[in-house]
Automatic annotation (TrEMBL):
Protein name: ROK family protein
Annotated transmembrane regions: none
Species in which this protein is naturally found: Vagococcus elongatus
Lineage: Bacteria, Bacillati, Bacillota, Bacilli, Lactobacillales
CDD domains: ASKHA_NBD_ROK-like
Family per record: Belongs to the ROK (NagC/XylR) family.
SUPFAM superfamilies: Actin-like ATPase domain
Organism superkingdom: Bacteria
């Protein structure tokens, strides 16, 4: 393959991350982010077109998309948009290959993270693994026999949809994605202390020992760890990786790992289990994996 530039765009429920990947240097550069339009696909399309123009001088050869939801990667159809329901039934490849006048690829965000880690990250040579991407919801990717398992209807790994309690009683809070969502967790904690607070300040307060926030954070971790245990029993992975922006927070990761190990100590029998690690590429895993999918599908 010659020296080409691929614009990688990771569309999240809260932010759009993007970066330029060069196939000669194998480097991801110009990484930045902007808020995700929340109200319409038309607004999202305008943002993407603007991003393409921003990189015109770099002679973009193609665009690799990572986004939430159930994706038919070969056809480009978003079956359902996950955190971005306005993407439902939109064919990204058909729309954007004409709007952007270049080849386009699309894949689910958590599967992109898994592709990056299988390619040259912490899943290299791993046969059975699980990637959990914590963000607006909970993205999941299941690796079986060294490849990503999508399932009969491409819903395998849609862990945000797992129902953990009565949906009649709890509504949207019955599903795991809303229980571990970082924006919703920050919103909940802001209500607890009676003022709006940003993520870095929140976790600093928790680390500094704020009693009420620590109590709520431990509830969050206990609930999440129980579900990670259920994943372990269901899929029996040899490695579980945590991705998403929060994976860069060492305090969060240390507490999560400690809570998980303490949980296993409570079990009446010893269960062999995967250790939790972060994605090697952390918050850039989706971008790099989107490139890998582009290279595999378009070349």
């Amino acid at each position: 393959m010659g020296n080409i530039n691929i614009l990688s765009i990771d569309i999240g429920g809260t932010y759009i991350k993007y970066g330029l990947y060069n196939t000669d240097t194998h480097q991801l550069t110009h990484v930045d982010a902007l808020p995700t339009p929340t109200h319409s696909f038309e607004a999202l399309a305008a943002t993407i077109n603007s991003l393409k123009k921003q990189f015109e001088e770099h002679l973009i050869s193609g665009i690799a998309f990572s986004l939430p939801g159930t994706i038919h990667a070969d056809s480009g159809l978003v079956i359902q948009g996950g955190a971005l329901q306005y993407n439902n039934q939109i064919n990204f490849i058909e729309v954007f290959k004409h709007q952007l006048n270049c080849p386009v690829s699309i894949e689910n965000d958590a599967r992109c993270a898994a592709l990056a880690e299988l390619w040259k990250g912490n899943l290299k040579n791993v046969q059975n693994g699980l990637v959990l991407v914590i963000g607006t919801g909970l993205g999941g990717a299941i690796i079986q026999n060294g490849t990503i398992y999508a399932g009969a209807h491409r819903y395998a790994g849609e862990l945000s949809m797992i129902v953990t309690k009565s949906i009649r009683k709890y509504g949207a809070q019955a599903v795991l994605g809303n229980q571990v969502s970082i924006p919703l967790f920050i919103q909940h904690m802001s209500q607890k202390i009676g003022k709006s607070i940003e993520g870095p300040e929140l976790f600093q307060l928790i680390e500094d020992g704020h009693p009420e926030l620590n109590k709520e954070f431990q509830k969050y971790l206990d609930n999440f760890v129980q579900q990670i245990f259920n994943f372990q029993i269901s899929y029996d992975p040899e490695q579980i990786l945590i991705g998403g922006g929060i994976s860069r927070n060492q305090f969060f990761m240390d507490r999560l790992v400690n809570t998980m190990e303490n949980f296993y100590q409570l079990l009446p029998i010893q269960i062999p289990h995967a250790k939790l690690k972060t994605c090697k590429f952390k918050n850039n895993a989706n971008l790099i994996g989107a490139v890998k999918h582009y290279l595999d599908s378009i070349g």
